[in-house]
Amino acid sequence: TLTLSGNAYLQKDLFHFSVSLKGNNVLLYNNRSYQVYASPDINLSYVKNKISLTGKIAVPKARITPIDFSSAVSLHHDVIIVKEEGDKNLMPKLGFYLDLDVGLGKDVYFSYAGLTAYLGGNITINLAPQQLTTATGNLIISKGNFKAYGTQLAINKGSLIYTGGPIDNPGLNITATKEIRNIITTPPSQSGSSTQTYSTSFQNILVGRNITGTMQKPK
Q: Is residue 3 within 8 Å of residue 23, measured between CB atoms?
């Protein structure tokens, strides 16, 4: 259930409104790349051509498996946009501002760029007109895998670090490892015996990666 409440002020030359939205464990988004359940407590307001969305959203459950994070489609260079003549003040530009705290629960699954993991933590998402969507905070990898060397490495620890940059390019601090068994063969000693054999022993070796850099340029 979502609960919507608010108020509006109307006058000849002035109009503004404020609307709050609250809910618990609501399916907000559902397609082949994203399935997100959320508990929102947010406010949408409009004052003097400025729309602001603020508040917080708890995400108890989600499946985030994007093909990529690109959502912008560029027009072909032959396309020409023809502007209509008229009063420029009839349709003033609206400025959209976003300041949203997002907290992840224990059942948030993420898969992208070889990384599959369950995420937790909190980030604050910000957006201003003609600006990139940015974020601050940390998302913690509780368990997961990273594909490398043609195999799956178990993530021992990891975090996605947002320091105010683009939301699709967090910093990485991930350790992913796998234990393999190395076979050590020792040649026979030169004892002169006619029944010499090679001896074999096994040694466990921990291999893997320490991943730093960013999501778009991991090191």
A: yes
Contact 208, 215 (CB under 8 A): no
pLDDT at 72: 45
Q: Which residues contact 15 (CB under 8 A, 6 or more apart)?
A: 8, 9, 46
Residue 145: the pLDDT is 87
Residue 88 pairs in a beta bridge with none
Nearest in space to 16 (alpha carbons), one of 24, 7, 3, 25 = 7
In the 3-class helix/strand/coil scheme, how is the chain assigned residue by residue? CEEEEEEEEEECCEEEEEEEEEECCEEEEECCCEEEEEEEEEEEEEECCEEEEEEEEEEEEEEECCCCCCCCCCCCCCCCCCCCCCCCCCCCCCEEEEEEEEEEEEEEEEEECCEEEEEEEEEEEEECCCCCCEEEEEEEEEEEEEEECCEEEEEEEEEEEEEEEECCCCEEEEEEEEEEEEEEEECCCCCCCCCCCCEEEEEEEEEEEEECEECCCEC
Give pLDDT, residue 152: 83
Query: Per the structure block, which two tokens stand in for 161?
Result: 């670090």
Residue 101: per-residue pLDDT: 97
* Predicted local distance difference test score (pLDDT) of residue 188: 77
Residue (of 169, 147, 146, 173) closest to 158 by Cα position:
173
Mean pLDDT by 10 residues, the chain (219 residues): 92 88 93 93 92 96 80 60 58 83 94 86 93 94 81 86 93 88 80 70 87 90
